[in-house]
Specification:
- The chain has 431 residues and is α/β, with parallel strands linked by helices.
- The chain has two domains: 205 residues, Enolpyruvate transferase domain (UDP-n-acetylglucosamine1-carboxyvinyl-transferase, Chain), CATH 3.65.10.10; 195 residues, Alpha-beta prism (UDP-n-acetylglucosamine1-carboxyvinyl-transferase, Chain).
- 30% of the residues lie in helices and 25% in strands.
- It is built from 13 helices and 24 strands.
- The protein has a four-stranded mixed sheet, with helices on one face. Strands 2-15-17-16 form a four-stranded mixed sheet.
- Strand 4 and strand 5 form a beta hairpin.
- Helix 1 packs parallel to helix 2, helix 7 packs parallel to helix 9 and helix 9 packs parallel to helix 11.
- The longest helix has 13 residues.
- Bound molecules: ligand EPZ.
- The site of ligand EPZ has 27 residues, from helix 1, helix 4, helix 5 and helix 11.
- Ligand EPZ binds next to helix 1, helix 4, helix 5 and helix 11.
């Protein structure tokens, strides 16, 4: 049954809120358990739809899954004995391609339905194919299946001509069990890439240099289970920071790594928000109209593309004009059509958006086109005068664990209600 968010805006968010585990680390760490036949206890697993889908796929492959609590899961992979992931569930999320890296590493033969994922651009996988091929695998994507097969995997030097989170992680997943050493050059440095490497090292892998643009992996014979706790979600933290400032609130965002937020923190301070950093939390306050600022998205430690959409909304009522350049994806401005319905003045030309700040947004019926566009529209609804209804919130549930509960605890007036099919009756009946 479809649901929508109904938000009565204009209420400042106040109080304290904790951030959950990082989605983009979890969606790689769960498939990575297939690199060993053993038992894992993983904490701080975000309870989001993408994770539930991946756990179901693991279960269908023969892994035993047990939740110790809402965010702690025990995974026993000892019964998994093949790499065939031609499971329809795999088509529902982009991160399915991590099963290729992990199962090629473990069984040297795998096939996974090509991934789906948010519609924010073409999202090719050429860098994944090139890297796995360099390790010695035969790869193809015939019949909608990502195949990879190898007699053996041999370490080598791989240069990424574009920084890619997914390709960096996927090649790492295979290289840890390759013979010899692999060097990844121009590798992604996102916190979730570091977290996946730390998880693999906890399993007995030998990865050095992660977090820099050159990662060295010394292949090992086999890996083992481990206990692990996933890092806090940088993007959920950023979403909440932006929501606090957008509603002229005062919020302490807890269980985060402040350093991971540096690009956003600097930009929000430039806009006039008051930000205090503590060991594992950040306090965001704002009591006046923010100033315009320019944003260009870049790989970490640059401004994260996943926060571009929420930040566009924050800028929509700032004083002055802001220029936003989306350098990572070619179609990540779909939320702008929707916030225009709420009174935003934004022009878009290819990868550049110019936001003319308006006094206020007004509530409207809008629809999410992807995960972070949905988050952006929630923020728009929280700051707008009047009522906003957000449709297609299934996208939001892929990456946020009941975000409305966290917002309600901060004083927001937001509810999740079923969408009634409005009877479509024609007033005119042509004879
Ligand atoms: C990951 O996607 C994240 N998803 C995205 O988050 C995030 O926006 C993105 O990294 C950038 O940080 C997950 O981790 C599951 P990329 P990914 O490979 O790995 C091009 C969210 O909202 N490219 O770093 O797909 C690509 O088209 C999601 O949580 C190639 O050309 O991103 C893009 O322009 C949305 N060939 C650029 O590289 C390839 O083989 C960066 O993509 C791979 C990527």
């Amino acid at each position: 049954m479809e649901e929508k968010f109904v938000i009565h805006g204009g209420r400042p968010l106040k109080g304290e809120v904790s951030v959950g585990g990082a989605k983009n680390a979890a969606v790689a760490i769960l498939p990575a358990t297939l690199l060993a036949a053993d038992i894992f206890t993983i904490e701080n697993v975000p309870h989001i739809d993408d994770v539930v889908i991946l756990l179901n796929i693991l279960n269908r492959l023969g892994a035993k899954i047990r939740f110790l609590d809402r965010t702690t899961v025990v995974i026993d992979t000892r019964a998994v004995n093949h790499g065939n992931v031609r499971i329809n569930l795999a088509k529902r999320l982009r991160a399915s391609y991590y099963f290729v890296g992990a199962l090629l590493g473990r069984f040297k033969d795998t096939g996974v339905y090509l991934p789906g994922g948010c519609d924010i651009g073409s999202r090719p996988i050429d860098l994944h194919l090139k890297g796995l091929h360099a390790l010695g695998a035969e790869v193809d994507t015939d019949y909608g299946v990502f195949h990879a097969k190898a007699e053996k995997l041999t370490g080598c030097e791989i240069y990424f001509d574009q920084v890619s989170v997914g390709a960096t992680i996927n090649i790492m997943l295979s290289a840890v069990l390759a013979e010899g050493s692999t060097t990844l050059i121009n590798a992604a440095k996102e916190p979730h890439v570091v977290d996946v490497a730390n998880f693999l090292n906890q399993m007995g892998a030998r990865i050095r240099g992660v977090g820099t643009d050159t990662i060295r992996i010394h292949g090992v014979q086999n890996l083992h289970g481990c206990n692990y706790s996933i890092i806090p979600d940088q993007i959920e933290a950023g979403t909440l920071m932006i929501a606090a400032a957008a509603t002229k609130g005062d919020v302490l965002i807890k269980n985060i790594v402040p350093m991971h937020m540096d690009a956003l923190t600097a930009k929000m301070v430039e806009m006039g928000a008051e930000i205090q950093e503590f060991d594992d939390s950040i306090r965001v306050r704002n009591s006046s109209r923010l100033k315009a600022a320019n944003i260009k998205t870049y790989p970490y430690p640059g401004f994260p593309t996943d926060l571009q959409q929420p930040a566009t909304v924050l800028l929509s009522t700032a004083k002055g004009a802001s220029v936003i350049v989306e350098n990572i994806f070619e179609a990540r401005f779909k939320h702008i059509e929707e916030i225009r319905r709420m009174g935003a003045h934004v022009t878009v030309d290819d990868r550049i958006a110019v936001v003319q700040g308006v006094e206020r947004l007004t509530g409207a019926q809008v629809k999410a086109s992807d995960l972070r566009a949905g988050a952006a529209l929630i923020i728009a609804g929280l700051m707008a005068e009047g009522t906003t209804e957000i449709y297609n919130i299934k996208y939001v549930d892929r990456g946020y664990d009941h975000i409305e509960d966290k917002l309600i605890s901060l004083g927001a007036d937001i509810s999740r209600v079923p969408v009634e099919e409005e009877p479509f009756e024609l007033d005119l009946d042509f004879q």
